[in-house]
Amino acid sequence: MFRYAPAQGDRAGWNKLAHECAQGAIFNSAERLPHSRCLPNTREGLLKDLKSLILDQRRKIVWLSGDSGSGKSTVAHTFAEELQRKDKLVATFFFSRKHTKRSTFNHFLLTIAYQLGLHHPRALEVIMKAISDDPALLSSQKSRNDQFEKLFIAPLQHLAMIWRGKIGMSLIVDALDEGTTSGTSHIEPFISILARLIRDETIPIHNIIISGRPWPQIQTVMLADHLADIMNVLRLDDYDSRQDVEHYMRHGFGRIYDAHDLSFLYPKPWPSFNDFTMLSERANGRFIFAATILRLVDRDQPHDHLALVCSMIRGSVEHAWGNIDFLYASIINSIDPSARSIGLRYLSLIVHLAEPLSLSDLHRFFGVNIYPHLLPFSALISIPSLSSSEVVQIYHSSLRDYLQKETNRVDVRSTQLHRPLATQSFRTMARLLKRDICGLGDPSLLHHEITDFAQKRDRGIPGALRYSCLHWLYHLQQADLDMTIRAQLLDFLEKRILYAIEVYGILGELVTGVNILRDARKLVATWSKDSFSGKDLALALLYDSWRLTLDFFDAINTSALHVYESALPTSPAMSQIRFTYAHVLAEATVFVFEEGLDEQWDCALRVVQLENVNDISAVSPDGSQAVIEVRDFLKVLDTATGCVIASLPTDNLDWPFRIHHNGSLVAITSPMPQTRVVHLWHPASGGMSSLALPPATSVVRGSAFSRDGHRLAIACFQSSSSLFGSVSSAISSNTTIEVYSTHSFQQISSF
């Protein structure tokens, strides 16, 4: 019985957790419809081995390893349903490159915590208290270690008593490879966190089932020696799936036969024995091959489409059976050449988007109705109705891989595809951005004081504009640049950057906006003046926009119209943004300062009110993070929001200590002669490593990171003394620089 009734504030925290987590990553979510399940009497050998491992009382990780289209997700979903029926399912997370929240590891811990809270009121109570004590736990900027300890470990420890005696409690993580859109470097820390769960006997999770492609980056982590005692690998290729695929195809064709009422025209067996045998042989045990064929046939006039598929495949017998690339090529080559070229162009652009868009948003983004151009490719991509808000997306990630190979084959680099996407982002913003885009009207009202704020926001900022504002820099960074696209950037900065800042504030993406402005300035700084005559003006506007947003972050974040009413009017008298947007300044409705303004921005990038701060120890090179000492903790702050994103107790550190921060690693050293230990703290993962320097008479005086963070230089001061009568005095001294690898801790050099 559900005994815990959260207080109103706690309920708000729970509601926010439900919103922030990736609901679509839960195995039975509506976002994953239609759910793919193993048909009866298929995958019997694999499921039997998987069940045996789960019932084994050893604590373990099980890696379901298989190539694209081998049916890993179907097996994972089927097993999740079975575990749920037996009350042995702890939680699930199904990654997907097609959905933003499911394409990285950022929302994993929040999503698992949400599911833990649904298991028992005691777990919910623990989670709610943690959020109430520290609301920043729900921020994507928060330390993963803090989230892990407070939202994951703590509720699980309370569930341990409730689940005592249960064997086989399992966590399922599907499509690990699809969670790497922000980079494969996150795989190792992610698996390390899961390994900690298995090795901790107080945690009531006995099995973690992970499916993923056997990428080299994944294999290196999964097959590492230090995981050998807990890692069990089930390779889908070791199981003969040819009969399973044949059964799947018979079932699929039978459904098509009945749904289209073909019995009046074509007697059974349908397809014919020869056609079905040929298709089964070509599929060669690959589910994605069979699924693509069924999808192509399951349209109007299915018999004609079946004949087309069979004739295409029979026409190229020299290709390897079961090659999904050949099937994709066959389907694409069957499209009329006049429609194929432009449709394939839009399809290639769509798969390079940072996130999928609906048809209406694609229409706004590209400025043309691409629906008829995509229709011939409906066997390869999901195309919702024109009135639907559902996104256009490929059926399977292997199509993205195929298209990438094809563009490389014809010497079309992905950078050439990002250039038109950057161009369309600027064009979309040029068409749609304007002042007070949502009609909020009164700048004195905070967003939460406007009763229909959400409706106005959604009406005023369509998906295409939201996408363009959030991702123009993403495409610009990866594009082949020319004079035209640089001119578009300058035009955007001179005419619309304030409107974009307003949109960031309305969307609740002001932190993202700050990072975009900062990183865009870094990018433009690398361009030569020969290639971009407007470089100095662009750099000045980017800097002023960044400073304006930082200085008025809280005001704009809670009432976006303050970008015009307070931020711009009080900007420095000699700032470029004040000159460029003088016409906007003249329209200010609250007040305009004529005198008393500073000429330039002051040295303080951001003012954050804090209590009990002992010292400001270090700032990252880009100014986005600061390390401070607060009471008995080192804390990393996001300088834009003021949020604490990581913390480290200092009770085990030798005091006094010095701090150096390179943006991702924090080095902690002590100048005391008896201490020759350097601590390396990784705030994002919470990991801590220590480097014990060889004993010596030298004293550590300082340290510094290399630009890439891969090396750490340590300055050691050494002195010798001589006794003259009763006076001891130093007669020589020297400083040694010791360089170490931050990965292996091996000394590289010294001088």
UniProtKB/TrEMBL annotation:
<keyword id="KW-0677">Repeat</keyword>
<dbReference type="Pfam" id="PF24883">
    <property type="entry name" value="NPHP3_N"/>
</dbReference>
<dbReference type="InterPro" id="IPR027417">
    <property type="entry name" value="P-loop_NTPase"/>
</dbReference>
<dbReference type="InterPro" id="IPR007111">
    <property type="entry name" value="NACHT_NTPase"/>
</dbReference>
<protein>
    <recommendedName>
        <fullName>NACHT domain-containing protein</fullName>
    </recommendedName>
</protein>
<dbReference type="InterPro" id="IPR056884">
    <property type="entry name" value="NPHP3-like_N"/>
</dbReference>
<dbReference type="InterPro" id="IPR015943">
    <property type="entry name" value="WD40/YVTN_repeat-like_dom_sf"/>
</dbReference>
<feature type="domain" description="NACHT">
    <location>
        <begin position="60"/>
        <end position="214"/>
    </location>
</feature>
